[in-house]
């Protein structure tokens, strides 16, 4: 089992993953329309909590996903055991790639979202309006004009609530800001203005010029994940994000850090300050050294967690070996337990002490969401 190894006396990292798509089919065992295993979302959340992720924001990309995320967050939070599970919060909104769900009756669909928020706002599960925005890299999903139309329509709805914004922006900054900023500064002709001006531009992949323009807005934050850290240019831009505006996320099950990413070489094996853990693995389960027999157990490259292919998870969980181990991760599926890797990369890119990066990102997340 996992046991903590003290790296910095008296310090244990705390992580807030501000973007997890727990509603994705992969966490329900479905991969490209193939059923490989039962839902393992409980195990995913337990692994995250085991590795010091104590808060997670579940993101919704559609009305149905937003509704599902609210129900799932309530189910987990009702267990009432924050030693086993992270505290879960949710967003409500429609992603630019799925805004065609507003048609053929946009006002009726918008009213469904309005009611969903009103009916579920009181207990604090819903913490942000989103994921909304513009994505000009994927116009094959939704034409540009439709994206702009429904971005503005959802911002109008957001003015009815005191919720921060969780925003998506890909290669669209000019239109993104021209639509958004009048809701911030109150310059719209109809007088509509956001009550809560805290904004997160999540999964940031823009240029240095994009970053500078976003940072001109004092209430705007930026979060990064594996997709934000692919190239040398990405890493150079990410390094310039001020510490008081930075958050970290996985965007799981997407946006993992891969060997081909420029940021990959910044990662180290645990135990380290980001993952102060060792793992007692029964000797008989350790990988064999002889090529003839091959490895009996595969582990995550950096963490002492078993790793299996999606179509092998069900059989592994039924084996005797599984009873001696933490439930395995699925190969090539990102998880919130890996958010500490983003912190490690950012600490090295910014040449900042690990504790300072970890604590700043956590506190920024609380500040953006008006949490204590």
Structure description:
With 372 residues, the protein is an alpha/beta fold. The protein contains ten helices and 14 strands. Strands 2-5-6-7-8-9-10-11 form an eight-stranded parallel sheet. It has a two-stranded antiparallel sheet with strand order 1-12. It has a two-stranded antiparallel sheet with strand order 3-4. Helix 7 links the parallel strand 10 and strand 11. The longest helix is centred in the N-terminal third of the chain and has 17 residues.
Based on the model shown, name its key terms.
single chain, Metal_Hydrolase, 372 residues, nuclease, two-stranded antiparallel ribbon, hydrolase, 8-stranded parallel beta sheet, alpha/beta, DNase_TatD-rel_CS, metal-binding, TIM Barrel, 2 domains
Write the layout of secondary structure elements.
Elements: E1 2-4, E2 15-20, E3 30-31, E4 34-35, H1 41-50, E5 53-58, H2 63-79, E6 87-92, H3 106-120, E7 126-135, H4 144-158, E8 165-170, H5 173-185, E9 199-201, H6 208-215, E10 220-224, H7 232-238, E11 246-248, E12 277-279, E13 307-308, H8 313-317, E14 329-330, H9 339-349, H10 354-368
Parallel strand pairs: 2-5, 5-6, 6-7, 7-8, 8-9, 9-10, 10-11, 13-14
Antiparallel strand pairs: 1-12, 3-4
Helix pairs in contact: 4-5, 9-10
CA distance, first residue to last residue: 32 Å
Strand order of the largest sheet: 2-5-6-7-8-9-10-11
Q: Multimeric state of these chains?
A: single chain
Shape descriptor reads globular
What's the CATH first level of the largest domain?
Alpha Beta
Number of helices: 10
Could you tell me the number of beta strands?
14
CATH superfamily of the largest domain: Metal-dependent hydrolases
Low-confidence stretches: none
